[in-house]
Design brief:
With 103 residues, the chain is mainly beta. 13% of the residues lie in helices and 41% in strands. It contains one helix and seven strands. The protein has one helix at 67-79, and strands at residues 13-15, 25-27, 40-48, 54-62, 81-82, 85-87, 90-102. The strands form two sheets. Strands 1, 3, 4, 6 and 7 form a five-stranded mixed sheet that branches. A hairpin with a 5-residue loop joins strand 3 and strand 4 (54-62). The N and C termini lie far apart (53 Å).
Length: 103
């Protein structure tokens, strides 16, 4: 049978929705507007590590059609900082969703 053992195992990442509160973004870095003709939004899911830094990302939506804008968003996201989350005294990883708008 097995089972999944410790719920707070090392690779566990929570969705922000599963947490009892919404983690704050401590430092927001905005992407540079690399092309002022670009309009649209870029939706990313960010995996926040135990230090509050982005350690992984997934692009959910990019309506700008611009790779430059996407790169600019990703660079900004990795420079930003989030509130570390503790569950039962242990820092945990978690995913947050963030939308960057260009208009």
């Amino acid at each position: 049978g097995g089972g999944n053992g410790d719920v707070l195992g090392k690779g566990t990442a929570f969705n922000a929705a599963q947490l009892t509160f919404v983690p704050r973004q401590i430092l927001e870095v905005l992407p540079q507007n690399v092309d002022e003709n670009v309009k649209g939004l870029i939706d990313v899911k960010l995996k926040i590590g135990t230090e509050g830094k982005v350690i992984e990302h997934k692009v959910i939506l990019n309506t700008t059609g611009s790779q430059k804008c996407l790169l600019s968003v990703i660079i900004a996201a990795y420079k930003s900082k989030w509130e570390p989350v503790k569950i039962r005294g242990n820092n945990v990883f978690y995913w947050v969703e963030k939308t960057y708008r260009f208009n």
